[in-house]
Write a structure and sequence with these properties.
18 strands, 14 helices, nine-stranded mixed sheet, alpha/beta, three-stranded antiparallel sheet
Length: 456
């Protein structure tokens, strides 16, 4: 088996937990062009090297369709690009330098960012809102990832599995279902605590969440912003919620230089140990996925699926958890409450309903982020309660698994160690927590890939 073939088989195995024996008959041809955007079919945008050609401009990506050079023959399926590398490029946001949307120089300028965060706490919300709305005024014109939810990495996995099945004349192939007990999707509720006022309101927010049967994680800033008494994190845990670390001091400077990052990462790790926290989210969703190996937490929640309304644009283009080294990334797949209320000025749950519906249709992770700081006033609080009621109905009516982020982290790690084995003509799942796993099948229905659980 060639190295390309092994890597492609491993990429599909990691996503679907599929039998390697079903994917070892195909390979990819080596790319020989510069890195840029290209298409795989009319709708899927890729970023990487491709022998069909690439464009440095997103708008011209459709001129280069790798699907036209994809061939199937007796030795397997040959495609003109490196599938695992493209998936990695999307998840890691390596396409960003070619988007050039005019914001990079501002968000990466350490003097501008330091000046803003130096006076941020002194500015009334209405003043901050004015600056932020000016910054985000062109958000609808950002061409990629696709708003309001991007499924590019997930759809590429499906397209490549289809190629494997078509090339090998397989109509149905077994894999390990994404969620435990056959749940259709997964939902997590998270809260970032930005001020002492938000800290003091956390008990009320826990009451609201519990009223609708939800437990949530609270990401708490360990330095400078406010005190974190032991009674606070004891209460969160005693009530069945989760306590995580939120940045170091939320000054927007965590990822500005590698030297400063390494210094702060050591301090963050000490707080991870002090609070026995499993998870982390960076302030304002600033991120550099290539540096996360310096952290000791188990999972991260700093990467948006689509970051049109975040200071740092981009997005991981998937609604599924994925590994960054040994850290599990739980992407944020819906809009933040602050963005909806203050940037979009929408006091309804229409956007969240749309995003939840789209994610549910792709069996993905529904992750919500709100702030106790911004839910104190009656108007946003009523909207948040409406969102909780809607999510409760979705979970009940569509068999959505609601869990704490740490429980999702545990499951995704266990699933990554599971395998499918064939015994006496039947498929079985082996590995940790196999009793919670469900066997599923991917089937070809004309040119569509459809999923079904074993026994359905």
């Amino acid at each position: 088996m060639s190295s390309n073939r092994q890597l492609c088989a491993a990429a599909l195995r990691d996503y679907f937990r599929i039998s390697l024996a079903a994917t070892n008959l195909w390979e990819t041809s080596g790319p020989n062009d510069s890195t840029g955007f290209f298409h795989f079919g009319p709708d899927l945008v890729c970023y990487g090297s491709c022998s069909s050609g690439t464009s440095p401009e997103f708008a011209s990506a459709g001129r280069y369709d790798a699907l036209r050079l994809t061939q199937r023959n007796g030795s397997g399926t040959h495609v003109p690009f490196d599938f695992p590398a493209v998936i990695q490029n999307l998840r890691s946001e390596r396409y960003l330098p070619h988007l050039q949307n005019g914001k990079k120089s501002i968000t990466r300028n350490r003097f501008v960012r330091k000046a803003y965060y130096g006076i941020r706490e002194l500015l009334p919300v209405r003043v901050r809102r004015h600056f932020q709305k000016s910054y985000f005024k062109d958000w609808r014109n950002v061409p990629f990832p696709h708003w309001p939810v991007d499924f590019t990495a997930d759809l590429l996995h499906q397209e490549f599995l289809k190629l494997v099945m078509q090339a090998n004349k397989i109509s149905r192939i077994p894999f390990i279902w994404f969620w435990p007990e056959g749940a259709n999707s997964c939902a997590i509720v998270t809260h970032d605590v930005e001020t002492g006022t938000g800290r003091d309101y956390s008990s009320v927010l826990m009451d609201m969440d519990a009223k609708y049967g939800f437990r949530a994680s609270f990401q708490v800033i360990p330095e400078k912003r406010y005190d974190v008494p032991q009674s606070y994190w004891d209460e969160i845990r005693a009530r069945g919620f989760e306590f995580n670390v939120h940045d170091l001091n939320h000054d927007g400077y965590l990822f500005q230089s590698r030297l400063e990052f390494d210094r702060r990462a050591q301090l963050i790790n000490s707080y991870v140990e002090k609070y026995e926290a499993r998870g982390f989210r960076a302030g304002a969703m600033y991120r550099n996925q290539d540096w996360l190996s310096a952290f000791k937490f188990s999972y991260d929640m700093s990467v948006p699926n689509v970051a049109h309304l975040e200071p740092q644009r981009g997005g991981c283009c998937t609604v599924m958890p994925y590994f960054i080294g040994n850290i599990v990334e739980l992407p944020l797949t819906t809009a933040q409450d602050y963005s909806v209320f203050n940037i979009l000025e929408q006091f309804n749950i229409d956007l969240w309903k749309q995003q939840i519906s789209l994610i549910l249709g792709h069996n993905g992770l529904i992750s919500l982020l709100s702030h106790p700081d911004y839910l104190i006033d009656s108007k946003p609080r009523a909207i948040y309660e409406e969102l909780l009621a809607h999510l409760r109905k979705i979970c009940d009516d569509h068999n959505v698994w609601h869990c704490l982020p740490r429980e999702l982290d545990n499951w995704w790690r266990a699933r990554s160690q599971m395998n499918i084995v064939e015994q006496n003509g039947a498929w079985h799942i082996e590995g940790p927590e196999k009793h919670r796993a469900r066997l599923a099948f991917a089937s070809l229905d004309s040119d569509r890939l459809v999923y079904s659980l074993a026994g359905d």
